[in-house]
Structures are given as structure tokens and as C-alpha cells.
Specification:
Chain lengths: ~700, ~700
């Protein structure tokens, strides 16, 4: 449940503006303009010792002079005065402060951040929450509570509506707002939280998604310091079927420093963010256009059943390009029923196309009714899940009004997603006037449709998989800077994996040459023999791996050789592993590590020598099921090979998926204290043959570490 | 040199309209409207036996009644009358006919096409060229010769300008036109050629690119039946530094039917089109937006020296997103000089960012001069090749006029490419008014910049590589349906490759067990032994490959075994190949085949079992140099591995490139008569170690075939 202070800041009964200005273009003046202009019904208390009236409001010299304690205060005074004002708010019991003042962490990452930290410490004890500092402010057009100095609400006329936009950045709280308004879409919430010293953008978002009028949530994020709050936003949104679209920028920041595990090296911030957002059903877009281009589609209340597309146009070229765009988007063209085609054939001229895409041809110019005549026929065919209507050229000689009306009737009749592509502004305007989503090109239209449908699919998957699996990346699960990971030797790593249900190759740790010979006899040759040392992660380079040994002499020789190599190098000698030689059809890798922010992350990917140079991997955030692993495997580049090509049988994806799921459980087990894990290679056989972990390197927290089950 | 008839059709002295109508919305009426409205200065002769005047023009009963033979005629009468009209034009010596009538190949692919073929045969003998049938017509706003019935020129006011748009499709001749006009860009040529029964869109384009006023050519193509004409367009365009952008749709059409060679299977139409367009320096886009979004940049006359970007914004978020977009586009952020940063530091507030991207911060609101003050400082720094200016929010309180003026001054001063991102329509309009290219988002701006710069780079490469290498896919080079390819056995295939300078593994074709033993001794063991038959392409499956044989007994045994296998299966037994066992670091594949349209196509890619399931390949159209192969190899997914990772030395890319270049020459050699070729595997060693072809399957034209050097 979100903090009641956050509900108050979205819908305050009373607002004080500390540092009120009569200049409407100053940060202490503009909120007053907005509060009066956009219908705020609560009390407004400007505070300024130098004046008794500000922009029409009675003005008070100080907070303590107000007739009541305001629920919320805007602090718009600079420097130390801002700190004093925040403290005074806390002393008086103001629920939340919107701290617009800058000069904190954003200009001085050390001293400024420290100032923020101390301020939060003082104030939270008294129950006051802070939005900011350096916040452009919050705007709720549902309540008229516009605690913001953004210029944008003067530039693009507000209208209450179903969209909420949240961002730390001021610009990115209002740019999507402005683009929505250009499209005629109403925006209720447009909040810029600034430095997030106390309330984070995710925490505020959790309060916003409780607003039942919100039907689409847009987030701009430059970092996700508190994934647990964002997970909570996603959880509430899933319950409400509320789509969340996130633009996480800084995608291309250098990854984490080289890590000891493959997962550490490959699970760079960007890939983990991808996995985190996907895990929670949040759709990630690459730019601002991605936030807004498909927005209208989400607001139609459609319930698409699938992704088979029907395209209709008066241009053959647009038909071809629609089919191209659909194919690139992975949307198959629907196969129309024979009756549908026959009926279309009776209506359309003989040279028109009655297969999908449906080319009405330029005959539309001479007979504007063709369009309206065929749509009801298509509406009856259940094959279509969604439609794109392309009208590249119309105008004089065409009954564009009829096209738009007929399309709107058709859309209402089918209740299925429908997008229009019309590059001419006047044609576009007519379709828009009928409430239809219109794009300039068919590719843009199909791409928006694909985003919308794919996002709903993602939400459904997240709903299924996350039903009773709360996100657990609480701080205790994160790798802590103070911890000192300890590498287990291969035998211990394999034993730990095995004890958690992972399929480990048959092997024995031998403490003498004699034990090696016994192991050979028990396992049966040929065997692999490997030197075992908790000090050595990469054995091959040192000559500590010998393969295909068959005789007692060979394994005895290997024992002696390896003992010598390890002891000569001054490393700990833990013995020699004798293992069965398993053959698999493909070498995969399974890895895991603890992300400092997102907690446990599990990787599965194509193995071999070049896992890092030619990455082909998927990341999963536990908890996840084997089914989710199977879905992830299906998205690998090598998926066709895993599925079986060239007449080969499919590989044992069930076993591999189970193994990855077991790694997920292992990473969730606080007693296991795993820091990172590389199972490499994992040999996968044909379906039914299982998979086998041949080598493992596991790092655990050291015994005296505080992480885990305390 | 383009046909003089095509020059005439673009700038005719006189035009007859056969089937003139006084209804301005009919195909026989609208050209008359356009000719009078858009300033055509030649003679206009409407032809219609039923009237003496049409839309203000004196009208004649028949072509033969005209006072002169018109240079060009529009035929706008239906059915057989159209055929008669075309014949009459030819009889009278009309240079070119724009045949708008439909009912030909587009509605009847068999009978209609045949009608077209016969018409062309009759007419060409008399020297008349046909544009069409089913042509929407041609529009040249430079001469006012609008021989078109498109609705679009009523909808979007024409303005002569530097852009030419050509398409078979009517819609796609005018949709880019309309989008250009929405952007305020003038369009001179907008031509829709229809069914291309005679003059193709590429042939007409070759005439259009001779127009010195054309600075940008846009092509929409659904097929490229005459690559030699498109190559000629590209050649003229290269000489003129004229960029050509092509949208080839139907990208996702099913590939060619399964072919006997890997190249045949992998060089699907779409990949070959990619290679062809790249070969000629034509930029391929995926949709209509790609044709127009960057168009303005091409018209600025910039001469970019590189692709290092500087981003400037008053929003930190826009700075981050610009850097993201640049990184995704492969545009590095320029490193500003220390002096630049110091000088910026003196101007900007302390919390602004003086590294690139440059965040002016919201301080711009209180000091609109900041923007104009820093630009001259940045202009002096040579590190930047191009700029993106992001103004996500401005308006009341900002001096937007000054920003736009200052930016225009800066752009003029540097002469370097500059794009603006401004989502607010009024801000956008101010920058546009200064002649600057403006986009809604920074990503769109950077993507357009990247397309523009990458296209110029492509043009430069094409200029270098194509300097004296004409395109040779003349019909005789194409695989002909009548030819009967004959498979060479492995020994003959290897010998042919070797005789053309390709590095073939040491081997001998042996005709007896004794010869096998001699070969073993000459080559030195271990050797590979392979059964040789011109009837067998896939040896492994039949047990016809044995590896690592060392002794006379082993090779003798192999001889007898393989002879038996081949003879028992009723195939031709050509002997046994004994070959050295070469080791390489990577198995590559080199292939080639003759595309039925584009002629010889050479493939190089990652080898192994899954070449088709996990394609990682590049196609090249000969002639090409080893340097071009090296560029292609650098774009493979496995390029890092070829270059050396994990401390490995680089592989011998020089040798591999030379081998691929040799295959290119072989495919160009008419005497070699190669239909297809698979060199698989080609083992590549470390730099200096060369590469070795271990197996080869070559198909040649049969001896009695007519293809080749006749």
C-alpha cells in the first residue's frame, strides 16, 4: 500500500507555496497560475514575507502563520532557506514537500547528495515525505493539483484523461505529455520527481497506479535504484490490467567491470534491465516515440485474441508494404475463408485481390462505395485478429468521409484492433475525427499494432508466471560490497549443484592414485581426469584436464602429473576428479550472479569458447518456472538448432529448462549463499537423454558474511 | 545514354491526349487540368471525336487530324481502343506513349501480359516507346509536363525542387511526393510507370538522373527485372554525387525454391537485392518513412568528414537519449578539446555539463543567451563532425527565436551536418523557418543523420570500388531455365578451383588401392579418404569419408569399402581421393551461384553444420576486390572471432579474402561456365597460415548449353 502522504501529494486538501512569486514565469509563481487556471479546489497558501497578496491569493509571511497546517508544501526558495523550509514543514506535520529548489546532488554529487541524505534523515523521523529536490513538480489534472513550474502546460493545453507520465527528468515528464496532447489524448498525471532523495519515481508511480482513471502508465527512467518499488508498481498494474511502458535510457552505458563469472560479464546493466522489465510485464521502448506512438491503441479497450492481420488498401503497393511490415513484426497475414473471398469477389472488380492483403485497386476512385461494401464481409470472417487500412491517396473524387465512417462502423462491429495508415493530413484528420488511430505509413501502423499486441501478450505471460511469486530483490539479496566471495573447488561446486537437484555428470573426487583407479573402474572408461583446487578456476590452460583415459596406468599418471602441477604452482591441492565422458549434442552454459541492484540473475545461453565474443543468451530473474525457461530458450539465436534441423531430433529442452529453473531456486535459497555460478559446459542431448553439467565454478559468500538468512 | 524518346517524355514539345475528357476527375481530363495549371508551355492536343473543345483546349477528332505529330501522347481510352491508339501513335512517329489504360498484365497475368508483349513488338519496330500500361503517368514540375491523372497534385500543392520520385505504383510515386511537400521540400519529378511493358522504371530513372537539377532520387521498386538499367542509374548518379534511396518492397516474399547449393538456398531474393543495391551505392530503406525522413539532409550540400557527434540540450534526459541513439547508430560522441571545455565552463553554470553531450540545464530558462554564447565555442572545436540540438521544452519565458537564429548561424559557420529535435510544433516551426532540419525526437534526428552519413560513406565506397568495373549481369550471365547444370565430382571440382588460383588442400585422385597407398606415402599421414562420384554430393551420410588414416592397410581398406558402397548403390565410381588432413581454426563456407535476375552472386560465411539454420553470411556481386571481401567479413557476426578474441591471434583474413575474390573472378569467367559452387569447408588458419579448401561441389553448364562465351 502506498504511503498516505503520496496520496495526499496527488490530491492535497491544501497547498502552501514557500517562496511564492508574483512573476508567473518563476518557479514560485507558475504553480499559482496553474492552481487557479486548472481548477484546483483546495486551499492555496502562498508564503512570502515581502507581500500580502500573490497573483490573487492572500499571502502569508511564514508557514507557521497559516490558519492550518497545509497537507502539502511546495518549497521554491534557494539554498539553505530551502533546507530550513523543509525542516519547518516537518516540524509542523506537513505530509509531503515538493522541493523544487536545486543545488543538491545534481550539481554536487558528493556534498549535495550528503545534504540530501541528512535532510531526509531529519524529516522522515517526523513523518514528512520529500519529492525532490530539483523537482519540476507534480501535475494532476484530475484534481487540478498542479504543483509544477513546467512551461509545457502553457504550451499544450491540458485535458484530463487516462494517461499518466512519470519521470525524474522534468523534460521527460512533459515531452510525452505534449506529444499525447498533440494526438488529442488526455493526460491526468505528469510528474517529475527530480533527485528522488526520498520518494522515488517508482514509489510515486505505485500511488499513481492506484488511481482507477489511469489506463496507461508511461515511465521515463535513467536508473532503477529501487527495483522493489517498480516491481510493486508492476504488480498493482497487472492486477488492474494496466499497461506500463518504460523508457529506460542510458542503455549504452559501459557494462559492469569485468567480473569473475560469465554471467557477471554478460549480464550488463542493460540486459538485466531488459530481463527485469520483461519479468514484470513492463514493455521497454527505445525512445520517446516508443512511449507515445502506440498509446492510443491501449486506450480502446480492445481484447485481441491473436496477431493475425488483415490489410486492406486501394493501393497494391500499400498491400505489399503492409505484408512486409507484418512479416517483420511477426504478425502472420490471416487466411480468409473461401466464403469471404467469394463474397469479396462478387463486390470487387475482377482485377482486385480477394486474398489478404486485399487490394481494392484504384477502382475505389470511380466507386467510393466499394470500401464500405467489403468491410461487413470481412467483419464476418473470424480469421482476422486485427486490421490495417491503408489509404495512401484520396481527396478530390473520393468520398473520404464515407471511408472514415465505414471504417469506424467496421471497427465498432468487430471490436478488434484496427489501425489506419493515411499520409495526407486531411485524410488523416477525417479518420481521426471518427476516433480511429491513424499513422502516416503502414509500417508505423503495423509496428504500433505489434507493440500493443505484443505488450498484452507480455502482460498475460507476466500475469501467469508472477501470480504468486513476489519480487524478492530486497536489499539483503543483493551482492554487498562488503562481502568476500569465496570460490569453491570443482568438486564442491559440483556437489552443491547436485545437492540442489542439478544433473551433474557422474564423477568422484579422488584423494590418491588408487582412488582414481577405483573411480575409473566404477565409472567405466573412458573418463575425464581433472585437477581440483579451490585456487584454480581455469584448469585447461594449466594442463589439469585430460580426456579419454581408459587404463589404470593413464589415470595414475594423470594423478601424479596433476598433483605435481598444482603443488608446484603453490596452489591448494584438493585432489583429482575422475568423471564420466558424457557426450552431448550441444554445449550450453548456465550461469547466475547477484546483481548489486536487481538481485539474483540467471543466464542460459549457447556455450563453447566464444560465449562472451558471440553472446547468444537470455537472462531470467528468479523466481521463474521451467516453462519460462523454455520460452527464453525459444528466443535464442540457436533455437532452430535446439529444436532440431536437418532431420535431427529436438534436443532435451525440458531437461535443460528444469536445470535452469533449479539454478533459479538455488539462487533464491538464502542458505545456499551463492554469489555467482558458472555451469559450463552443460551438455544437452536429444529429447529424453537429459543434460549433464560437466564443470562448475561456484562462488559463495564467506562464512562470516552477513548476507543471507540472518 | 538514355533513349531520346525518354528525354522527350520528360520534356515534350507537344502532347496529345487520346481520350480527352471534360471531367477533371477522369483520367482523360485531369492531365489537361494539370497542364494548364502547372505552366506547361508546349502544345496540348486533346483528342476526342465527340467534342471540339475540352477544358479550354481546342479538341481534335483523331490523332491524324492534328496539325503536327505530337512528340508524346497520353492514351486514356479503354480496352482495344487503347491498343489501336498506341498503334496509330507508332504509325505516325510519336516518340513516346504514356499508356494509362488498364486491363493488361495487372488484371490478367497471362493473356494481359501477352497482349503487352505483342503491342511492344509492333510498336518498338517503329521507334515508339511505351510507358505503361496501367501507368498513373509522369509529372515533371520543372517543365510543367504533367502527364498524370494522380489526385495528389490537387491535394498537395506542387513546387519545383531537387527531388525525383519514381515508382511503378501510382501511390508510391505520389506518397513520397506528398510527404516531401508537407516538409516544404520541392519535388520536380514524380513518375509512375505502371506495368513497365516497355520502358521500365529504372530505364526512365536513367533519363531522370541526367536532369542536373535533381539532387536526390527516390525509388520505389516491387521487382527489379532489369538490374542492368538500375546499375546504369547508379553509375550516372555516382558520377554526379547524386544519392539514390530505394524502397524495395516484397522483402518477405518466400525465397527461391530449395536449391542444390548452399548459396542457392541462402542467397534469397531479398539478400541478393541488398547486395546489389549496396554494390551500386544505393541506400535501401525498409519503408516510406525511410524514403523521406532524412531527405532534407541530403539537400544541404554538406560534406561530412566523419561521424563523431556532439549533442547539446537544455535537458539532461535529452543528452542521455541522444548519446543512446548515437551509440545504437554507431556514431561515437566527439571528445571535445580541453580548451573547449574550459571555455564552456566559463559560460555555463557550474552544474551544467561541459563534456559531450553538453547539458546547458534548465538555466536556459533564466538566461536565453546561454545557447547563443556556447555555440561559437563549440564551432571552433574540430572534434565534431555533426551536431544534434535538442530543445524538448521551450515557449513562454524562452527566447525561441534567438535559439533558432543562433543555431542557424552556427550551422552556417561550421558547414557541418546539424539536426534539431523539438517536439513542440511551435518550437519546431521556428527552427524550420531558419532552414534547419527538425525532428520530433532526438532518436529520429540521430537516425536521420546516421542514414545520411552512412549513405555518403556507402556512395564513397561504391565510387572507389566500382570505378572501372561495369555491372555485368547481362542476360547471358543469368542462369537460364533451359540450361542443365552438371555436377562435377569432387576431384574435378577441386581441380577446377585450383586451376583458378584457389587454395585447395593437398590431395590425389586415386584409381586403385595401390595409388591410394602411394598417395598416403606422398602426402604423409594422417590422411582423409573420400569416395569420389559425380553422382554423389553428400558423402558423409553414405560412409564415403574416413578421417585420420595412417597406414597402407587403412587406406587400402577404405578404397575397397568405398568402391563397394558406390558401385552397390549403382552410382558412377570415379575413384577415391586421398587428401592431407588440414587443421584450421574456423570452418568457413564460400559459395556462388547465378541468380536468374542479378547474375553471379558470391557468398562467404561462417561454416559448419548449421550454415542454413544459423546463417551468418555476406553476399557480394562480382566483380569485387579482396578489400571489399575484407569489409564484408568485418560485418559477419563472427567478425570478433575472426579478428582474434581471448588472446588468440587474428585469423588469415587476407587469404580468405583473396580466395573469395578468386571465386568472384571465376564466376565472371565465361569459359568456366560455373552454375554454382560450394567450397565447404574452407579452413582458415591464423594470419600467415592461409586457408584451405577441403571439399568442393561445382555445377557447370552442360557442354551443349548455349550460355557463356558464344
Amino acid at each position: 500500500m502506498p504511503d498516505s502522504s503520496l496520496k495526499a501529494v496527488l490530491d492535497p486538501k491544501s497547498i502552501a507555496i514557500i517562496g511564492a512569486s508574483d512573476n508567473p514565469n518563476k518557479i514560485g509563481g507558475r504553480p499559482l497560475v496553474y492552481l487557479s487556471r486548472f481548477g484546483y479546489r483546495g486551499k492555496v497558501y502562498p508564503i512570502n514575507p515581502k507581500r500580502t497578496e500573490t497573483l490573487g491569493y492572500k499571502t502569508y509571511p511564514a508557514l507557521r502563520d497559516l490558519p492550518e497546517t497545509p497537507e502539502v508544501a511546495i518549497v521554491a526558495v534557494p539554498g539553505d532557506a530551502a533546507l530550513a523550509a523543509v525542516d519547518e514543514c516537518a516540524d509542523l506535520g506537513v505530509k509531503a514537500v515538493v522541493l523544487m529548489s536545486s543545488g543538491f546532488g545534481e550539481s554536487d554529487p558528493v556534498g549535495g547528495k550528503e545534504k540530501e541524505r541528512r535532510m531526509v534523515e531529519r524529516v522522515r523521523a517526523k513523518g514528512t515525505r520529500i519529492i525532490g529536490p530539483n523537482s519540476q513538480g507534480l501535475a494532476n489534472f484530475g484534481t487540478g493539483a498542479i504543483l509544477s513550474f513546467s512551461t509545457m502546460y502553457l504550451e499544450a493545453e491540458p485535458a484530463d484523461g487516462p494517461v499518466a507520465v512519470l519521470s525524474q527528468s522534468g523534460a521527460m515528464a512533459v515531452v510525452p505529455y505534449g506529444l499525447m496532447r498533440q494526438r488529442g489524448i488526455g493526460v491526468r498525471h505528469s510528474h517529475a520527481t527530480g533527485n528522488d532523495c526520498d520518494v522515488t519515481v517508482s514509489e510515486l508511480a505505485a500511488a499513481v497506479v492506484e488511481d482507477p482513471e489511469v489506463k496507461l502508465l508511461l515511465l521515463y527512467l535513467e536508473s532503477i535504484p529501487d527495483p522493489e518499488n517498480l516491481a510493486e508498481v508492476a504488480r498493482i498494474a497487472r492486477e488492474r490490467d494496466l499497461p506500463v511502458i518504460a523508457l529506460k535510457s542510458g542503455r549504452t552505458a559501459a557494462g559492469q567491470a569485468a567480473a569473475s563469472s560469465h554471467t557477471g560479464a554478460l549480464a550488463n546493466e542493460d540486459r538485466v534491465v531488459d530481463a527485469f522489465l520483461e519479468h514484470h510485464g513492463i514493455w521497454r521502448v527505445r525512445d520517446t516515440a516508443g512511449l507515445v506512438d502506440a498509446a492510443e491503441l491501449y486506450l480502446k479497450g480492445w481484447r485481441p485474441k491473436g496477431r493475425r492481420l488483415v490489410a486492406i488498401s486501394n493501393s497494391g503497393a500499400v498491400c505489399v508494404m503492409s505484408a512486409d511490415a507484418a512479416s517483420m513484426a511477426g504478425m502472420p497475414m490471416a487466411k480468409l475463408a473461401d466464403e469471404t473471398r467469394a463474397e469479396l469477389g462478387r463486390i470487387l472488380p475482377s482485377f482486385a485481390t480477394t486474398t489478404n492483403p486485399i487490394d481494392i485497386t484504384a477502382a475505389l476512385l470511380t466507386n467510393s462505395r466499394l470500401f464500405g461494401d467489403i468491410l461487413p464481409v470481412i467483419a464476418k470472417d473470424p480469421a482476422a485478429d486485427a486490421f490495417v487500412i491503408g489509404v495512401p491517396v484520396a481527396g478530390v473524387g473520393y468520398d473520404v468521409d464515407a471511408f472514415a465512417r465505414d471504417t469506424a462502423t467496421f471497427a465498432a462491429l468487430t471490436g478488434k484492433p484496427l489501425v489506419v495508415a493515411a499520409p495526407q493530413p486531411n485524410v488523416m484528420a477525417r479518420f481521426k475525427a471518427e476516433g480511429l488511430p491513424v499513422f502516416t505509413t503502414e509500417t508505423q501502423a503495423v509496428d504500433a499494432l505489434n507493440q500493443y499486441i505484443s505488450h498484452l501478450e507480455l502482460m498475460n505471460r507476466a500475469k501467469t508466471h508472477r501470480a504468486d511469486a513476489p519480487f524478492v530483490a530486497k536489499p539483503r539479496d543483493r551482492a554487498s560490497a562488503s562481502s568476500t566471495p569465496v570460490m569453491l573447488n570443482e568438486a564442491d561446486s559440483l556437489a552443491l549443484a547436485q545437492s540442489h537437484g542439478l544433473p551433474v555428470v557422474a564423477h568422484r573426487l579422488c584423494r590418491s592414485a588408487e582412488e582414481c583407479v577405483e573411480a575409473l573402474q566404477a565409472i567405466g572408461g573412458p573418463v575425464a581426469v581433472k585437477g581440483c583446487s579451490a585456487d584454480i578456476a581455469h584448469k585447461s590452460e594449466l594442463g589439469l584436464v585430460r580426456l579419454g583415459l581408459n587404463t589404470p596406468e593413464e589415470v595414475t599418471d594423470a594423478w601424479h602429473g596433476m598433483e605435481r602441477i598444482i603443488r608446484d604452482s603453490g596452489k591448494r591441492f584438493d585432489g583429482v576428479i575422475v568423471a564420466a565422458m558424457r557426450k552431448g549434442r550441444r554445449e550450453m552454459i548456465i550461469g547466475a550472479h547477484r546483481d548489486p541492484v536487481f538481485g539474483p540473475v540467471v543466464m542460459v545461453g549457447d556455450g563453447g569458447k566464444y560465449v562472451e565474443a558471440l553472446p547468444d543468451l537470455r537472462l531470467l530473474l528468479p523466481p521463474f518456472s521451467a516453462d519460462e525457461v523454455a520460452e527464453a530458450l525459444a528466443r535464442l539465436r540457436i533455437a532452430p538448432v535446439l529444436g532440431g534441423v536437418r532431420g535431427e531430433p529436438p534436443m532435451d529442452l525440458a531437461a535443460l529448462s528444469e536445470a535452469v529453473a533449479a539454478v533459479g531456486r538455488l539462487m533464491m535459497d538464502p542458505a545456499a549463499k551463492i554469489v555467482s555460478l558458472d555451469l559450463n559446459p552443460v551438455l544437452v542431448g536429444s529429447a529424453g537423454e537429459g543434460c549433464a553439467i560437466v564443470d562448475a565454478v561456484i562462488f559463495r559468500e564467506s562464512a562470516n558474511d552477513t548476507m543471507g538468512n540472518k
